[in-house]
Amino acid sequence: MGAMPLAIPAASNVGTDARGGAWAEAGPWRELFSRIAAGEVEALARLYDLAADRLFGLALWRTGSRDDAADVVQETFVRVAEQRTRLDRVRDPRWWLLAVAHRLAIDHARRRQRRPAEGLEACAELVAPQADQALAVDAARVCELLCRLPAKQRAVIYLRHFGEMTFAEIGNSLGIPLFTAASRYRLALARLRQLVGGAP
User: Fold this and answer.
1) What's the pLDDT band for 123 if we cut at 50, 70, 90?
2) On the chain, which terminus has fewer CB atoms closer than 10 Å, C or N?
3) Number of domains composing the chain
4) How many CA atoms lie within 13 A of 19 on its CB side?
């Protein structure tokens, strides 16, 4: 699933699972949910290994805070444990997990003011986690611009480019219509072009 063109340095470990998980295929995730529903603790640990980084990235972009993002991940897995007996009825666990994390991130963002400096630093780590100095400068500039977008647009940009999701998948994850997801994405790109001095 190719990302749409955007001048962002590619991250080496964001958007794909570093441990070899197949995020693009729903089957393995449904199997994990079924095993968790059956009470397998090892399956819950495996789910955490596969999903935690992605959930953290989304929460970080939504809240601008590492602490809040870490809390969101923890609370998401608390929800998984609390709703264990119903997990085998979830059609697509990837969307379910992202939707839960997104709602929790919104709650955190509403309770606290965003911390722009911390959000910029953490964003740069996601965009270029092991960058040389030149790439780190580029990543910092990209993140400065991204942090000036509305949080809803930032979330769609994250899911599209780092989550490698279609607009339909983004809509399912965030609980919004496909058209709304695509519209937020287009608005975000238009705003970014304005910020870098391109055509409106």
Assistant:
1) low
2) C
3) 1
4) 11
Is 35 part of a structural domain of the chain?
yes
Range of the domain at 31: 24-114
Domain-located, residue 194: no
Q: Residue 154 and residue 147: Cα distance in Å, rounded?
A: 7
CA distance 131 to 193: 24
Structure tokens at 42: 């090892």
Residue 140: exposure state from Cβ atoms within 10 A (0-12, 13-18, ≥19): middle
The two structure tokens encoding residue 52: 């935690």
DSSP state of 10: P
CB 54 within 8 A of CB 99: no
List phi, psi (to 5°) of 55.
-65, -40
Q: Is residue 161 part of a domain?
A: no
At 33, the pLDDT band (50, 70, 90 cuts) reads very high
pTM over 0.70: no
DSSP 8-state code for residue 149: S
Residue 162 lies in a domain: no
Q: CA end-to-end span of the chain, whole Å? A: 27
